[in-house]
Amino acid sequence: AFRLPLTSDAYELLFSSKSRVSYIIALILVDLLTPLIIKRWVLCANHTEPVKGFLGRYLRRKLIEIEIERNIRNNDLVKIIDWIPKMWHHLNSFLETHSSSDVTIGPRLFLPCPMDVEGSRVWFMDLWNYSLVPYILEAVREGLQMYGKRTPWEDPSKWVLDSYPWSSASLPQESPALLQLRPEDVGYESCTSTKEATTSKHIPQTDTEGDPLMNMLMKLQEAANYSSTQSCDSESTSHHEDILDSSLESTL
């Protein structure tokens, strides 16, 4: 065993012609490192790089490998591969809107996408109906209970159907339809937003301000309360003065 003072010496030894098979065994002195350096969390959020663009890069690389292997380029498949990352980002935006970024979906579910048109269509139908929709419904339901309604409801399946990359003419008649995410499935209609609750509290005040008779009655009530308060204060003051006078006379 020997120590290499520089990393460049290791590469020089590795690519040297003196040895047919070269390898490097690297050791590290744990005592020289603090626990903070040894154990460190690296946050990779779904809405930031490198995770945000990972799915697109991964699928394009798979597509290029298939095109080189088959020596053919399928424009329909290219369209599908470009669409899947956009759909993934749209779903995560929906989850962030009605819940939080903590419940967004990672790219792992979309990595096994088959590199053929029909296979990718069947794969996506199963993924949407049996994995994505149940998870989104549960995540949004919990988000509404925690944060309430923050924006109007927009079914993400509408965006999926509007931008669907597979040709509808090639779909078999017996194929299952994409499930929709209805607001009643997550209790959206029964959930009251903070803005609506605040507005409802101000409605009686607005109606009162617009009624002149009610305004006059309120002013009369305030005047009566004020006069009664003044009379009570004057009575208590005069009574207190009488007590002081009587005590002063007894002292004299």
Automatic annotation (TrEMBL):
The keyword Coiled coil applies. This is NAV3 isoform 14. InterPro entries: CortBP2_NAV1-like_AAA_lid, Nav/unc-53. It comes from the Eukaryota. Residues 66-175 form the CortBP2/NAV1-like AAA+ ATPase lid domain. GO terms for biological process: neurogenesis. Pfam families: AAA_lid_NAV1. Residues 227-252 are annotated as: Disordered. Keywords: Coiled coil. PANTHER family: NEURON NAVIGATOR 3, STEERIN.
